[in-house]
Amino acid sequence: MAENLWVEQYRREPEKEDRKEILDKAIAEEGLTEENALRLQFFEARYEENKKVKIDHFIRGWMSLAYVENESNSFFGKNRVKKEIAKIRSDFLLDLAKEHGEMGQRVLYDEFYNTARLYISLCQDDKSYNSILLGLGRMKPAKLIAKIAADLHHVSYEIPEKVGLQEELKPFREALTEAFCDAYNKQKNLLLDRIHRNV
After folding, report:
1. Per the confidence metrics, is the pTM higher than 0.70?
2. Are 195 and 153 in contact (CB under 8 A)?
3. Residue 128 gets which letter from DSSP?
4. What are 35-67's pLDDT values in tens digits?
5. What is the per-residue pLDDT for 70?
6. Other residues' Cβ atoms within 10 Å of the Cβ of residue 64
């Protein structure tokens, strides 16, 4: 299996089970190389499953950013914000990536890219996300894409800057940008224009 091909499939595939199948096949063909072992470690740490819960820690970290933004406006929320930022760092496996240097950053970036592709897919399919008039109608595609661009910019640029995570979440920001541009190449300026205004 050509490395670039399977890695590209792996980072684009939204379904956890299908991602595991791609990774297992690569390991069977290539062996447990250092990078494959690290991808497996990220996979097992990202997806938590037991009898009671199924958690995608990257999605949870993403959702926690919105909570942190709200709490950061509250005088009494400062301690909660510190705890929540620690959880975000943990959910995003930032320490694990740092331990493995350049390879860790590459694997982390691919997981962020995958999370963004999953988020975009969920937004496209979710009736409540793309509904208008109290759910009586659906947004036109152009408005939906503009809304996704605004949300991605907010979570990857505005919130990290507001709570002091802009440097640590640089790979998150870049991966979300790439994922949006890949998904909506013709409309990529909806996000890129926001980014350039932000600089």
Report:
1. yes
2. yes
3. T
4. 999 999 999 999 998 777 889 999 999 999 988
5. 76
6. 17
Q: How far apart are CA 107 and CA 94, in angstroms?
A: 11
CA–CA separation, 169 vs 166, rounded Å? 5
How many Cβ atoms are within 10 Å of 37's Cβ, its own excluded? Answer: 13
- The residue to which tokens 């470690």 are assigned: 41
- What is the rounded distance in angstroms from the CA atom of residue 148 to the CA atom of residue 50? 32
What are the structure tokens assigned to 163, written together? 């709570």
Distance of CA 95 to the CA centre of its chain: 16
What 3-state class would DSSP assign to 10? helix
Whole-angstrom Cα distance, residue 129 to residue 150? 13
CB under 8 Å to 44, separation ≥6 — which residues? none
Token pair belonging to 73:
């406006």
Two structure tokens written together for 135? 């759910």
Q: Can you read off the two tokens belonging to residue 108?
A: 């982390």
CB crowding 39-55: b at 16 or more within 10 Å, else e:
bbebbeebbeeeeeeee
Q: How large is the average pLDDT for residues 122-138?
A: 75
Q: Which two tokens stand for residue 183?
A: 């998904």
